[in-house]
Amino acid sequence: MAHQPNIQPHSKATSIRLFSLATPQMRAFHLAWLAFFVCFFAWFACAPLMPVIKGEFGLTKDQIANINIAAVAVTIFARLIIGPLCDRYGPRKAYTGLLLVGALPVFGVAAAQSYESFLFFRLAIGAIGASFVITQYHTSVMFAPNVVGTANATTAGWGNAGGGATQTLMPLVLAAVIWLGVEQAMGWRIALLTPGILMLVCAWLYWRYTQDCPAGNYSALRATGLLPETGKKAGWDSFKRACGNYRVWLLFVTYGACFGVEIFIHNIAASYYVERFDLSLKAAGLAAGSFGLLALFARALGGYVSDRVARRFGLDGRGLLLFALILGEGLGLLWFAKAGTAAFAIVAMIAFGLFTHMACGATYALVPFVDRNALGGVAGIIGAGGNVGAVAAGFLMKGAASMQECLFMLGVFVTVASLCAIAVRFTAEQKASEEALYQQALGERAAAA
Question: What residue ranges of the chain have pLDDT lower than 50?
């Protein structure tokens, strides 16, 4: 049976020391969010430039919708695969490989000469969205129960900020390239080389400075007998075990409702502000970027609050918090859809964005406790749920009369999906076991202090 390596809780970090790189836990923490930031930046680098690219290739509304769907569709399968691969090979090898291979379509999209080739490379780029699963896996095996929610949410949130950064920075990079005398038709291509180069740099850093878990790398630990030899079917076994857990599928839906909405908004926000409120490309990029930059603190806040709630109410408290956050997101999304001016739309977007990012953090604050013996499978399936939500939103946009109508219907679906969080329940045995580990981690932290 595949399972998360049996690293004892006392070897995991019981606190997060943000300004330290001295321990393998904190090196993994910082490089995990940095790698995810760069991947997210590359994943959505095309989005703020779409008004320019649309003119370059003469794209129709349906073609743009297809490109947005392609950007997140492959990520579903990549996330399902990458989680079990982490169980088998370890997060260090998985991340390094993903960064190296994922840089290729990033360079390819800059060289696209037609709608068809652009769509192909945009589809392939979606695979780097699997980086999120590795980030969450790595921090889950590095941090103890009392802080794992905060660690997961912070690394994911800071990484997600790459989506906001790209909305703001890519138009500025394009403007700088044009200022240097390059034609706009070539400028957007040069601008898109930047994230690919950053991915190659991150691949080297991850390989050089991280290890799989507090005790070392999986391959070395298995060679010395400190970890069981899992064999070639390890990833598949982890995946099958996760598939049989109903909690996984409930969180699959909730993550589709929060992260799915998040990446859908990243794809359409700039275009929405341009088309509905006649903002300039630069102004629309800044407005759209404010949504993504909430991830700098809001997702971490969701994980932190989940950890604090768990201290008093246990695992059930984490589920109830998630319900409240997704409900708030759905209501805020309805408000955003009805906003009549750019100013009100931005305020509404920030409001529902706060709930959205916090819900993402609260979801993955629950993930490490769903099934410790199939962490990779659990993290991968739930992560894929986010992209299923984004793809569904993309098809909803194709069928809606307008983008505004699409956003309103999306708000209704998110509100209903919040009910899935209430249905996540744990057995008395699971709650007692996790409470014991939680108290043990608190004791070790107090002793260390």
Answer: 1-10
